[in-house]
Structure prediction request, 1053 residues.
Amino acid sequence: MQKILSKIEGDKVLWGLVSIMALSSMFPVFSASSNLAFSHNGSTVLMLAKHAFHISLGLLIMFVIHRIDYRLLGSLSRFMLPVLIVLLLYTLFFGVNISNATRWIRIPGTSQTFQTSALAWVILPLYLARYLSKAPDWELKSFKLSFMSAIAPILLVCVLILPSNFSTAAMLFAGCLLILFVGGYPFKNLLILIGAGLVGLSLFLVLVFKFPNMNNRVATWKARIENFGSDNTADNFQVNKAKTAIAEGYLLGKGPGKSIQKNFLPQSNSDFIYAIIVEEFGLFGALITIAFYLVLLVRVLIISTKAPSKFGSLAAFAVSIGILMQAFVNLAVAVNLFPVTGQTLPLISAGGSSIWVTCSAIGIILSVSVGKQNNPLAQEGEPQEEETLNPQEPAHA
Amino acid sequence: MNESKYIQNRAYAVAGLFGVLAIAVLVKLFSIQFGEGKELRAQAKQEVFKEKPVKAERGNIYSTDGHLLATTMPVYDVHFDPVTVPSDSFSLRVNDLAQNLAQFLGGKSQREWAKTLIYERSQGNRYVAIANDLTYSQVQTLKSFPIFNYGRFSGGFVLEQKNYRKMPLGKIAERTIGRQRRYSATGLEGAFDPVLAGKDGARLKQKVSNNNWKPVTDYFEVEPQDGYDIVTTLNARMQDIVHHELLKALYQFEADHGCAVLMETKTGAIRAIANLGRTEEGTYFEKRNYAVWESTEPGSTFKLVSVMAALEDGVADTNTVVDTENGVFTIYGKKVRDSNKKGYGLATVKTAFEKSSNVGIVKLIHQNYQNQPSRFVDRLYTLGLHRKLDLPIKGEGKPLIPKPGDPSWSGLSLPWMAYGYQVSFTPLQILTLYNAVANQGTMVKPRFLEATRKHGKVMEKTSPEVLNPAICSEETLKKLQLMLEGVVQNGTAQNLKNSRVALAGKTGTCQLNYWKNETKDYQASFAGYFPADNPQYSCIVVINKPNYTKGYYGSTVAAPVFKHIAERVYSSVPMPKPTRASGLALADASPGPDQPKIKPGEKIPNLKGHNGAAILSELENRGFKVKISGNGKIQWQYPPAGTLLKGNELIELKLG
Prediction:
């Protein structure tokens, strides 16, 4: 045990935060699983065990990744990107269909399915961070020159995700814009990209509306967008139940396991788990949950700021974008601020893909924080100055 | 600005966005909890907590000899929600499912099933009927079929339980036992519904998923009260006899419908009642309760009333001579004919009755009452024939007796009434009258209910109800009985003479729709009782619209049914049950000759050595409380032999 603990490096606060979140997630997941277990003749204990397994494996992944130098990970991302694209293609054509959406592939030799689009949240940002930190200014300034290396991968990945998961594609696209923005990509080029994204999206919509039978998810999005704020749809049923759960929660909640709305709220252990947290733990639980992510955000900012290189700084921020966007969109959906989308609450919702990818991302952030600690120069002087003077980082690749 | 600072500032800007989002989420959260909160909480409470009814168990219906006639068992309806099934597994397995359904349920071919399921899915129908009234084991089989085996959510298997009323003895007396449905109640089920149904209770429940509710407390808010069992007067064995004898005759004469009722003379208890109507295929089933409902012109069976009136009024005696001429009597331009087409010459009233001479009876009544028709009609009213029997079973036909002063009254009314036309009665009403003759003049109401019970304990016993203590003088009664015996000995029903039981009764052959020309529709009937010298049972058999070419006379169509019923019922009445092996339930039917009688108000005999189970059922049926230990033969009893029994005391038995 001592040996393992001695191997744990990097930001202690982040380690603690993630462990507490992962452990705390057991309560709402266990409680909210009862509905699924009841209606599918399953067992809540089995579902809890499954969640515990997901969390444990996630923590292991996190541990392994944080031991790897983030620069190596950055280089790896160049090779991972084609792998991601192949996996997404495979998912699109041979994936497992759940609720009319082909988002999953079966992991060979197991019954475990994996949502490939989740992987994009780690690989694409890391790749972009690396590109943005390595590419010369003149290349970044030209939309044309940066297109093949930066813009094309973003568009390709988003387009591949789009048919089965509109919201993830849109969010990923937006996330990439944020990364490009933070990474110093010129405003002018960003506007071109946004324009291109909008054009691509409208083209896609025209296609699917013209051929409505091509993909039956279209009907779902259409309905979701059309029905936001109106009554009498399946989504509004969910929203209504989620709001009821939140209203029932009051200040201190009903107590662990005592949620009633979990019985009626579909996806109560993943997409709508926040509503169940509020019902069981009240406003107190609601604030703690938001605080978790805000503290995560703050730690990422600190790690990013203290990172020994531009790549480290950008990488830590970039991989956190996915977690934060999913988290806040999930929260916003649960309180009916956004229309219903199938976003999970990272580290808390049940579901292997989400947990593992989130843990990978945190592993990378931790790796960056380790890099900072191991850098003797970074430990001494002012971080900001150290970074710019960092002799280990070549000015341009 | 250096590059790192640049990244930081932009990162802070993005972080700020998240911060704003976090605040927005919190604001919305507050607004839900404190703004819409009250309404949402009220709505949730209303949706989630409800007092749900707790069904009271419906009582069973038993025959008087202990057979179960109707009981409640759970059955299941299966529906299918094809929309919830994922499209790939649906298209992959729909044919397998169709094949299984075609094999298991029949009705449709595999192709038809597949077509239906695919069509309903395309129409978005989420509630496709698959099968109704399945037993639990059938449901288990169905559940294992492809697609269905994914369960409720992925397989669209929708299961609903309902309570089905089962008649273990099959179609026998089905109409009389009846059905209790939400909007219609028939037969005894309907008649005694308040007793059978009990009172539903209520329990506070919390919704746990769409159709599942769990109890909140460990008690009932309102305790359900189970319905009482009812013991009918029907005797399963006699019902079986009556049913099958009637059925045989209906088949033989290809009749449209018929009914037969067996009534216990002294108590009015209906021991058997069969009502069979013809299907298009020429088979028969319990179609309508003809015996209770169908009011028709009775025809010659009504001559009993005419003769009774004449005897009571002293206008004639059995040996008064009437001239039946040559079988035709013309009155107001209409002809009354005797069925033998030549009449019986100068005949006594007795002969005219026994031979069922229309001319004789019509002339008797016409000559004596034409100037005072009210006197005749009043007699019918005094008998109470104008009133319904007020049966518990709904739908009793209304008797019809015209009276002078009615718009329809004419000179023909009286002579027509004399031989059973222009009046209308149900078979049960006629039987009640004949039973009164059998019962030494006391008219008792037909009874269907013997007792109500709860958990085997008798709650209430019914007793015979007298409608008319004396329908006529004893003298008249004797004459009527002699004449009814004479019908069998010398009259129209001589084919019943060599019966193993002495029979008495009257034939009736009534032309239906006689106002139309060329009609060949008849109603053949026979009403009577047996044994003639000591009547135990009365019985009526009415057969409507027999095939004209096969026979239509009461004597040939209905009377033999009566005879067969009488012989089979009576021959077994005094005989002991062959064994006790057929079950305790039969034990109370008729105690064997060697079984001691234990009755309230009498002394208890020595029970030692008797079969414990047999005695137990005997005692319990008599309403005693019994404490029993061991099994086998009785070794010890309390109270000791010779003690006078009151009827409600505890009897202790030790068996060994």
